[in-house]
Design brief:
The complex is a heterodimer of chains A (285) and B (296). By secondary structure, chain A is mainly α. Chain A has 14 helices and no strands. Chain B is 73% helix and 1% strand. Classes of the chains: A mainly alpha (285), B mainly alpha (296).
């Protein structure tokens, strides 16, 4: 018996190590492009156009690229724009979306069924962005909102609002009605039930929804490209146009890439519990 | 709660007051622009040289179907959508099943697999553009070990579209992994344990228990991702700029180009609407799928 278990145990160990190695390969596959940008941003400009990728062995790391990137006025402008636009978009979407979501979750509308209103709002998410490129450009140019924060905030809110309503409605439906009913019986109005009872209870979900909207706006590129040319440019705009302005500067673009991805990735990890539910529009729990 | 006794009058209007700002916003910033664009598709309007649009009826639509560039972008869009989404579904499903193991290492691995999806798409596209570079790109060095030479991933008309698919797959396999993984991990244990008792193999468990149980999620994930993949713009802009020539343009890219480079706003609206019409059935399928699952 003993002579049989040893080969079995060896085979099991080999199997486990093989599984581990394969997993590491998967992780390298997913992490390498990030690593490549990271490493390139720490290269001296003379090393940019090389395939060296092991710091201290292949090349001597340098802070020159980061020093230049962070001191460029357009970097600071883009960073501020990104923060202002994504934060305002998420906040506006929640200010408009939360009451609507509550209304759909808790009251019965007579003429239109709630389900139909919710489905209608969701269906707006399915409109391809290509359809609204022209009208948004014309509207913003008529409102004198080209190259401003406000123009981009309005457009981004348009894209995240249906999503926000849909997912926040799900969160409200998860809450037990009893607390709100108790408040109503105690003589509170619908408004107090909403503001004082339901809103605090749904807070974690609201934060998750806010972050979803924030990340979308932070990463969005097409409409920033169409609506801005200098004052309201964001990091994605700078990254994408890196090639045209000064020839291809790998290090600079890499530094911008790292700068751009840190925030969405951190936020997404924070709400990873809600990711599947949010991105599947509530189908997966 | 709708049945609660009537309170003071304001309360009767609370539901409508709560939803009105949202619907107002949607009307002004979605319905109105979409309708405007639909109307504009019947006009010819060169934004920089013409004061006002001229009515041309369905000319824009007729023109689109003889416009080779439009037809190529249409073909590319659906090629990218179908291929990328299918590969992502298979890889994501595989990853979800493979990484469904206990232990800290595997739970960290599952989080790392989500990172690509969250990262700024234009940034990722640049990382890959550098890795694809024929002279210095590390990925291309790796490929040349097998192919014998570096491949012109982005400058060869027949390869460019596939390079875009490749980057899309790299980034969005994450999405499929996320949804399938969540579905796999929430499966009830009993059927799997029962199968084990009866001596079912790993493959039999996956084939006869896991897959049938998560197939509704797979369908929704596929539809959502497919619809999203058809909107592809960022990687096209960064990786190939639609080139070489216009061999790798997609619908969103071409609409952007017609709008901001040709300034033919009527024509741009028309091609966008043709595309919308083609994807409409797909969006209906998504809505029906999701609507069937909603509560309330």
């Amino acid at each position: 018996m003993v002579s049989e278990t040893t080969p079995v145990r060896v085979a099991k160990t080999i199997g486990r190590i093989a599984a581990l190695m394969f997993t590491i390969l998967i992780l390298v596959w997913f992490l390498f492009p990030f690593y490549w940008s990271f490493v390139t941003s720490f290269k001296h400009p003379t090393d940019w156009l090389t395939s060296k990728f092991i710091p201290f062995v292949d090349f001597q790391p340098s802070l020159i690229t980061w020093d230049r990137t962070l001191n460029l006025p357009e970097t600071q402008r883009a960073l501020i724009n990104n923060i202002v636009i994504s934060t305002s978009t998420a906040t506006l979407a929640l200010i408009l979306g939360t009451p609507a979501a509550y209304s759909l979750a808790r009251f019965q509308f007579k003429r239109w069924k709630n389900r139909d209103i919710a489905t209608f709002i969701l269906s707006l998410r399915m409109i391809p962005p290509a359809v609204v490129i022209v009208p948004f450009f014309i509207i913003m140019s008529n409102l004198n909102l080209l190259d401003t924060w406000l123009g981009i905030i309005f457009v981004h809110t348009t894209f995240v609002l249906p999503f926000a309503v849909w997912i926040i409605r799900e969160f409200f439906l998860d809450l037990p009605k009893e607390y709100e009913e108790a408040a109503l019986i105690d003589g509170g109005s619908y408004l107090t039930a909403f503001l004082k009872i339901a809103l605090p209870l749904a807070a974690p979900g609201l934060v998750a929804a806010w972050i979803f909207c924030q990340v979308f706006s932070w990463n969005e590129f097409l409409f920033v490209l169409i609506l801005s040319y200098s004052k309201s440019i964001t990091l994605p705009w700078i990254i994408a146009s890196g090639e045209h302005s000064r020839g291809i500067e790998w290090g600079l673009i890499s530094a911008y890439t790292i700068l751009a991805i840190i925030i969405p990735i951190t936020l997404a990890i924070l709400i990873r519990k809600y990711l599947a539910r949010g991105l599947s529009l509530g189908v997966v729990r | 709660m709708g049945s609660t006794v009537k309170r003071f009058r304001l309360d009767n209007y609370i539901p409508i007051l709560l939803i009105a700002p949202c619907l107002g916003y949607i009307f002004f910033f979605t319905i109105f622009p979409a309708a405007y664009s639909m109307a504009l598709s019947l006009f010819s309007w060169h934004f920089l040289t013409e004061e006002a649009p001229t009515f041309v009826g369905i000319d824009n639509f007729v023109k689109a179907f003889t416009d080779l560039r439009f037809l190529i972008s249409l073909r590319n869009t659906f090629l990218i959508g179908v291929m990328a989404t299918s590969i992502e579904l298979l890889l994501g499903l595989f990853l979800a099943l493979y990484l469904n193991k206990n232990g800290l290492f595997y739970s960290v691995a599952r989080v790392i697999c989500l990172l690509p999806m969250m990262a700024t798409p234009v940034g990722i596209s640049w990382s890959w553009r550098m890795l694809f570079n024929e002279r210095y790109g590390l990925f291309n060095k790796f490929v040349s070990l097998f192919a014998g030479k570096a491949l012109p991933f982005l400058s060869d008309p027949s390869l460019a579209v596939f390079s875009i698919i490749f980057v899309d797959v790299w980034q969005w396999t994450s999405f499929m992994f996320l949804l399938t993984s969540a579905a796999v991990q929430s499966l009830p244990r009993e059927p799997l344990e029962a199968a084990e008792v009866f001596g079912a193999s790993e493959w039999q468990k996956i084939r006869y228990i896991v897959l049938p149980m998560i197939s509704p999620v797979l369908l929704v994930a596929f539809l959502l991702r497919f619809l999203e993949a058809l909107k592809i713009f960022d990687p096209v802009f960064v990786l190939t700029g639609g080139g070489p020539g216009y061999s790798s343009e997609t619908i969103t890219f071409y609409t952007y180009f017609v709008t901001m480079k040709f300034w033919s706003l009527g024509y741009a609206s028309a091609i966008a609407y043709i595309f919308y019409a083609l994807t409409f059935i797909l969006s209906l399928m998504v809505i029906v799928q999701i609507r069937g699952r909603i509560r309330g």
